[in-house]
Every structure is written in structure tokens, then in C-alpha cells.
Design goal:
Blueprint (H helix, E strand, L loop, with lengths): L9 E9 L5 E6 L9 E3 L6 H13 L8 E7 L2 E10 L2 H5 L8 E7 L1 H7 L5 H13 L3 E4 L2
Parallel strand pairs: 1-5, 4-7
Antiparallel strand pairs: 1-3, 2-6, 4-5
Amino acid sequence: MPETAPARPRVSSGAVFFDDDGRVLLVDPTYKDFWNLPGGAVDAGESPREACIREVREELGLSVPIGALLVAAWTPGKLYFVFDGGTLTPAQRAAIVLSPGELAAHEFVGEQRAKLLLAPALWPLMGEILRARADGTTRYVEIS
């Protein structure tokens, strides 16, 4: 019997951005039921950081520095890298232009609103992202 190749997870990359009040930027993808961080799939031959920079430019119309890796997360079928996008200036926030047909809205949200908008499985990941940023560390997490 021939051996089958092991399943390979999809790889995605995103950034967490903040406003001056410490709220997190979430986006509303038109193709999902829940909101998410800006980002998307890592293309063949592309590093997670390169994908993050490209996705932020495509989704938000922003070319901004992307900081340190905060979290590498394994979820069933997906490996997800989240980078620190930092605090966006008022001018950067005003310059956000959403990718037509891909994103319906964006909003800077506090913890309670984020819990309402994110998929329940993503809330634990958001907690890890926020703790990693506060601690100045990188975390590896597995979410089932």
C-alpha cells in the first residue's frame, strides 16, 4: 500500500495594531462570519513576515513597519503567525482604505467588544497575543 503524504497545515500571517487608547484593530471579512486581525494566507515562496506586510497593504492600504513576532499558533489545519504592528498614528488610521469585496468594515475595539466580534475559538489566541506584547516575548501556542 503506498504511503500518503502527511497533511500540511495552511499557513496564515497577520498583525495586531492599536490606537492611542490601546484598542485593537479588527476587520470584518466579507467571507467569514466573525471578525479577525488584518492578514491572510502566506503564498508559496513567501515568508510569514512578507505575507503580513503584503496583506496589510492589500487589506488596509497601509505600508507600515511590522515589528516582532508575537505568537506562532498551531490550530487544527492552520499555522498562524501574528506580528506586532504597533500603534497607528491618527494619520495612519485616517489613511486606512479597506480592500473592496474582501473587508466590509474595521474597528478599534476594547476587550468586551472583541469578545463579541471574534470567533469563540480565537479569543484565547487574542489573550496570548496581548500578553506576548505586554511581556515583550514571543509565544508558541496550540489551540484545538
